[in-house]
Amino acid sequence: MQRDPIKLKWLFLGSLITNTGISFIWPLTTIYMHEYLHESLTVAGIVLLINSVFTIIGNYLGGWLFDHWKPYPTILIGIFTATISAGLLIFWHGWPTYAILLIVLGLGNGMVATCINSIATLIRSKQPSYVFNVLYFTSNLGLVFGSLIVGYVLPLGIEYIFTIAFGMFIVFFIMAFLTFRGLDKSKQSVRKGKVLADDNTQTREKLPIALLLLTLFVAWIAYEQWQSNISAYMLHLGMNVKLYSHLWTVNAALIVLVQPFLTHFDDYLLQHLRGRLYTGFAFFCSSFLILIFARQFIWFVLGMTVLTIGEIIAFPAVSTFVNERASFKEKGRYQAMVTIAASAGRAVGPLIGALIIESFSYPILFIFCSVLIAIFTLFFVGSGFKKAQR
After folding, report:
1. Residues 211 and 335 in one domain
2. Is residue 333 very low, low, confident or very high in pLDDT (cuts 50, 70, 90)?
3. pLDDT in the model for residue 189
4. pTM of the model
């Protein structure tokens, strides 16, 4: 049996550390730029958009280098870029230095995110679906840790936030430097054993993959409404920021509790991968239908609960579906496409939502999100029927 290039515990720990570090910086961006640097919300939005664009560039670059160069130095370059950016932010966090370093940080984190997913495709001791499920769990656990701690650290000064994030990235860099060394040799050995046997093997089901990535893209457009415009809607209805923050406590608690439960049924879910994706996106769609009628806080809790169940079911399965159909020599490229689809949805989601709200209303936005997810999910479902008829 072929050995894994690295021990799974190091891959999972790396995902936990880097996502904790990111969560110290990312949620504060709009507040810090508007309240501390006195820039307009429009300027903050533009910076976040540029950051997302560079994250997408990092996603693509990380996937390309993983496939065409070497995985080990690729992920080290990504971590190093994020580490240097966070370190410089400790001392230079005024305008426009903060925005520039944040964008560079996005580039590094984009490379790291794709590399972590791509490394998961080299694991042989566990099913890829299991690895992607646990990676999704650790990434969200990191976001929970960071979000909880940052509220206590911020009153001490913004430089302490960047110092802790810098420390997290330093730890990850040292850990990756020491424990990820087997990546290059493992990829070469798998290539010799797998690619030489079927060197002409092409990626299968490219149309279903494309439709699934489009569905993931629109799902993230919808998801971003929860992280941006829905907070304003709740305030408009007379609720406060504290109640809005409780929704993310519900989100985090459900992910931490339910995701490990799903891993026990990994074999069954792997055999019914399309059904898992259909179910997850159906929950996504339903969460926005609930919001159409939401006027009290309990309805937002219900909507968030349904949304979270949807993301737990669907999001990790996307990487698994793509990995099973991608040829070995293109696995990094296709995992990059997964992260690019998510990053692109995050980038344009708040702007699309704001334009719909300004032109129409919040209920129209929720209907738009539901219909959009439903349409692309049905296209993806249709691709499965076409395959079955062949």
Report:
1. yes
2. confident
3. 59
4. 0.79
